[in-house]
Write a structure and sequence with these properties.
With about 450 residues, the chain is of the alpha/beta class. About 35% of the residues lie in helices and about 20% in strands. It is globular, with a radius of gyration of 23 Å. The protein binds zinc ion (2 copies).
C-alpha cells in the first residue's frame, strides 16, 4: 500500500471546513484525524446532503482511534455524530485540547439540539486519551504518533505518524504528517509553531495559501490608536470576537496597554460572553503552555487574562443592566462579546442598543463572511447605511473600524517556512483545508521554492 493511497479525505478537502481525514495503517485498520463540522458556504458547496445533516457517511468499523489536532468546531464538530454512530475507540489529543473540548462540544450540541447531550458528552470524555506534546505514543502495531505544537490556538498540534520499522535501504523511518491548522509566529500567549523535522508525506492546510498577512507586528499599537480615537467622544467601543483564541489575545493586548499607558488606568473592559469566559478561564489554567513573554508578565505579578479593570458579566440580568447603563449614561468602556460576525450571541443586544448612537465605535478584528450582519455593518456603516438585527432595521450611526493582523492561520510565507525542515526535505505534499485559488497559489509557490523532493497535489 503506497502512502498516497493510505489517506482518504472525508471533509476539508474541497473547502475549509469539515476537517476529517482517514489514515490507513493497513487495509482494514485506520485512524481518523479530526472529525469537524461543515460550516457556512461549505455546507452548500461541498457534499451538500451530507453536510446539512453533519452525518458520518463512511464505515467506522475499521477505525482503531481518532486523533484531534485542536478543538475548533470545524475539526471536532461531528464528534457527537461519530459517537452516536457507535464509535467507541480511543480519542487522542493534547491535554489542553482535552480540557477545552467539553466546553466546545456541549455548546455545539446545545446549538444543534443534539439528542441526549449529557450522555454523549460523558461517553466522549470516557474515550479521551490526553498525550503530552513531544511524546511518542504507540497507536498501532507498526506505527507510533506524536503531537507537536502548531501555535494556532491553545492545545493545537500537528500530528506525526512514524513507521516503527525501517524498510530495506531506508535510513530514517517513514513519517506521515498532518498539519491540522498552523498558526502564525508572534501570536500573543502562544509559543511559535514547532519546526518540522521531516515528512515523507505531508497533509498541509492552505487556508491563506494565496495571501500575505500584513500589519501583524504593530497590531497592538493600532488597537491602542483606534481605541484612543474611539474614546475621544466618550462612547462605548464594541469588539465582536470569537470566543476561543481571539478574545484571549485581545485581553492580553489590552492588559499590556493598560499597564503601560497612564491614561488607560480607568478604562473598563467588559467581557460579556459566557462561552468566551469559560475558555478564558481554561486559558488561565493552562499557563504552563503560555509563551515566555506571557510567563514573564505573570512573574511580574501581572495577570494578563484577569486584570483589575476586567469586568466579567455573569448573568443575563447583569448583561441587560450593563447595556442600559451604557445606553443612557454614555460610560466609556470596551466591550468584547461574541459572536465574531454578529450572527448571534450577546453582541447583538449591544449593537441593537448602541449602533444608532454616534459616540459608539465598532471595531472588527476578524473576517466577516458574506451575508452576516458583521459584513453589512462593515460595508454600509461608513456610508450611513443600515443593518438588520433580529428582524429589525437599524441605521448605523456608530463609527466602524477594521483591524487586520489577527488571523490565527499561517499565511503563504508561514506555510512555506514550515517546509524548511531540520533533518531532510519533505517528499510529497497534499494540500487540504483551503479554497481552490488558495491551494493553486500555494502549490505554485511550493514548486517554485524547490523545498520538496516529490509532488504537491491539490
Ligand atoms: Zn482551527
Ligand atoms: Zn480549521
Amino acid at each position: 500500500m503506497k502512502v498516497q493511497q493510505r489517506v482518504v479525505h472525508h471533509g476539508a478537502h474541497q473547502g475549509v471546513t469539515g476537517s476529517c481525514h482517514e489514515f490507513f495503517f493497513a487495509p482494514n485498520e485506520s485512524v481518523l484525524i479530526d472529525c469537524g463540522q461543515f460550516q457556512g458556504s461549505d455546507e452548500l458547496t461541498f457534499a451538500s446532503e451530507r453536510s446539512r445533516t453533519q452525518a458520518i457517511e463512511f464505515p467506522i468499523e475499521q477505525l482503531v482511534g481518532l486523533v484531534i489536532t485542536h478543538c475548533h468546531l470545524d475539526h471536532v464538530g461531528r464528534l457527537p455524530n461519530l459517537w452516536a454512530k457507535g464509535f467507541r475507540k480511543p480519542i487522542y489529543c493534547t491535554r489542553a485540547t482535552a480540557s477545552l473540548l467539553p466546553i466546545v462540544l456541549s455548546d455545539a450540541m446545545k446549538v444543534a439540539n443534539f439528542p441526549d447531550p449529557d450522555k454523549v458528552l460523558a461517553g466522549i470524555q470516557q474515550l479521551l486519551e490526553p498525550i503530552p506534546y513531544e511524546e511518542w505514543f504507540d497507536v498501532h502495531q507498526h506505527w507510533r504518533m506524536r503531537f507537536r505544537n502548531a501555535g494556532h490556538i491553545m492545545g493545537s498540534a500537528y500530528v506525526e505518524f512514524e513507521h516503527r520499522q525501517l524498510a530495506p535501504g531506508q535510513t530514517l523511518p517513514t513519517r506521515v504528517v498532518f498539519s491540522g491548522d498552523l498558526g502564525c509566529k508572534h501570536t500573543p500567549l502562544l509559543p511559535d509553531p514547532t519546526p518540522l523535522e521531516y515528512a515523507d508525506y505531508l497533509i498541509l492546510e492552505s487556508t491563506y495559501g494565496d495571501s500575505v498577512h500584513e500589519h501583524r507586528e504593530d497590531r497592538q499599537t493600532r488597537l491602542k490608536a483606534t481605541i484612543n480615537k474611539a474614546f475621544a467622544d466618550g462612547g462605548t467601543v464594541l469588539i465582536p470576537a470569537f470566543s476561543i483564541g481571539r478574545t484571549q489575545e485581545l485581553l492580553y493586548e489590552i492588559e499590556d496597554i493598560i499597564h503601560h499607558e497612564p491614561s488607560w488606568k480607568q478604562v473598563t473592559v467588559i467581557l460579556d460572553s459566557p462561552l468566551a469566559t469559560q475558555y478564558t478561564q481554561q486559558y488561565r489554567r493552562l499557563k504552563r503552555l503560555w509563551d515566555e513573554e506571557a510567563k514573564e508578565r505573570l512573574a511580574d505579578n501581572r495577570h494578563p487574562l484577569n486584570f483589575d479593570r476586567l469586568h466579567i458579566v455573569e448573568s443575563h440580568q447583569q448583561h441587560l443592566d450593563i447595556i442600559e447603563l451604557l445606553r443612557t449614561k454614555h460610560y466609556p468602556a470596551i466591550v468584547i462579546a461574541a459572536s465574531g460576525m454578529c450572527t448571534g450571541g450577546r453582541i447583538v443586544n449591544y449593537l441593537k442598543a448602541l449602533i444608532e448612537q454616534e459616540i459608539t465605535d465598532i471595531i472588527f478584528v476578524g473576517y466577516q463572511a458574506e451575508g452576516t450582519p458583521g459584513r453589512d455593518i462593515l460595508t454600509y456603516g461608513p456610508r450611513g447605511g443600515y443593518v438588520d438585527l433580529d428582524g429589525q432595521r437599524y441605521t448605523i450611526k456608530a463609527s466602524v473600524y477594521q483591524l487586520g493582523g489577527y488571523s490565527a492561520h499561517a499565511d503563504q510565507p508561514g506555510l512555506l517556512e514550515f517546509l524548511d525542515t531540520q533533518i531532510k526535505p519533505v517528499h510529497h505534499v497534499r494540500l487540504v483545508h483551503g479554497e481552490l485559488p488558495a491551494k493553486m497559489a500555494l502549490q505554485e509557490a511550493i514548486i517554485a521554492s524547490q523545498k520538496i523532493t516529490g509532488n504537491v497535489v491539490i
